[in-house]
Every structure is written in structure tokens, then in C-alpha cells.
Design a protein that fits this description.
By secondary structure, the protein is α/β, with parallel strands linked by helices. It has seven helices and seven strands; from the N terminus they run H-E-E-H-H-H-E-E-E-H-E-H-E-H. The protein has one domain: Uracil-DNA Glycosylase, subunit E (3-Layer(aba) Sandwich). 35% of the residues lie in helices and 18% in strands. The relative contact order is 0.20.
């Protein structure tokens, strides 16, 4: 039985800690989300929600089995010189929705250190508008990486972003991940 106090407790913001980047030293593309959702945090895996389209899209674009085990999928990205990370290191957020991130609690990741360690990154692909907005507002003004980066805003692969069909998302993501630099 759910009581009003139980529902209120579920809506309280929870401190959320993101993951380390998955990136080979020769990465050329960095895919940025905002912050992992609950399913990803529970499994300690990027894009773990079963309805998130990220892995099916990456598999079609890069030619690997979307049902492959997680380490295999990560190696496929690294082999393609694609890195994964999130804009935020920590924040408070009830649930998984980006809209619920408490802006007064967010701490961005250390992108200066990332770009220093990954000097070949030339393109950043944002997985959704929230990731792009958070980066542009909380990272870019303080960033001095000493090189020109290309920024691409892509449709979110999240199941919460149902405005675009899978095929539409796939076409945009394919272009972003395979276009010459």
C-alpha cells in the first residue's frame, strides 16, 4: 500500500554520481549524455535501460551485435575511436529524467583533463538537448582546451524522447558518427 509519505520520499532528489569515461587514447569522437539514469546506475553501465536506443543505433552504425556483452560493445566503440561520457560528474535528481536535475547541485566533469588526455578528439556529439545545454552553460565558458571542436546536437536515444522514430534517430546518428572530420 502506498501512503502519501511514501510517494513524497520517492520524489526526493537523490545524490547521483556518474561514471568514468570510456575512451581509448586515440578517440576522435566523444558522445556526451547528461547523467546516467536509474537503470544505468544500478547496472553501472552506460545506456542500460532496455528501451534506450543507444546500443541498437551504435550497433547498426558500427556493425556489431547489439546483444553482445557490455565489454564487447565498449570495445566496438573504442575500436571506432568513439568515447562515452556524461557532462555531469554529480548532481541531485529524483528519478531518471534530465528535467529533474537540480541545477544548484550539479558538478560538471573535468573536461580540461579529459581533452589533455585525449588530444585527438575533434567532435562532440550530444545525446539530447539537455546534455548540450548543460555543456554549453557549465563547461564551455571555463574550457580552454586550445583546439577547435565540432559540436553536434543529436536526438536523445532515451525512451523518454519519443518525438522521433528509431529510423529518424538512426539516420541522424549515422551521419554524425561516420561523417569525415
Amino acid at each position: 500500500m502506498n501512503f502519501p509519505a511514501d510517494r513524497a520520499m520517492k520524489e526526493l532528489p537523490h545524490h547521483v554520481q556518474g561514471f568514468a569515461p570510456v575512451a581509448a587514447a586515440d578517440a576522435r569522437i566523444l558522445i556526451l549524455g547528461s547523467m546516467p539514469g536509474i537503470a544505468s546506475l544500478k547496472q553501472t553501465r552506460y545506456y542500460a535501460h532496455p528501451r534506450n536506443a543507444f546500443w541498437p543505433i551504435a550497433a547498426q552504425v558500427l556493425g556489431f551485435d547489439p546483444a553482445a556483452d557490455y565489454p564487447h560493445r565498449l570495445r566496438a566503440l573504442q575500436h571506432a575511436r568513439i568515447a562515452l561520457w556524461d557532462v555531469l560528474q554529480t548532481c541531485e535528481r529524483p528519478g531518471s529524467l534530465d528535467a529533474a536535475i537540480r541545477l544548484d547541485t550539479l558538478v560538471p566533469n573535468d573536461f580540461a583533463a579529459f581533452f589533455q588526455a585525449h588530444p585527438h578528439v575533434v567532435r562532440i556529439c550530444f545525446n539530447g538537448t539537455k546534455a548540450a545545454a548543460l555543456y554549453r552553460r557549465h563547461v564551455l565558458p571555463q574550457l580552454a582546451c586550445g583546439r577547435s571542436l565540432q559540436y553536434l546536437d543529436l536526438p536523445s536515444t532515451s525512451p523518454a524522447h519519443a518525438a522521433a522514430r528509431f529510423e529518424e534517430k538512426l539516420a541522424v546518428w549515422r551521419e554524425a558518427l561516420t561523417r569525415p572530420e
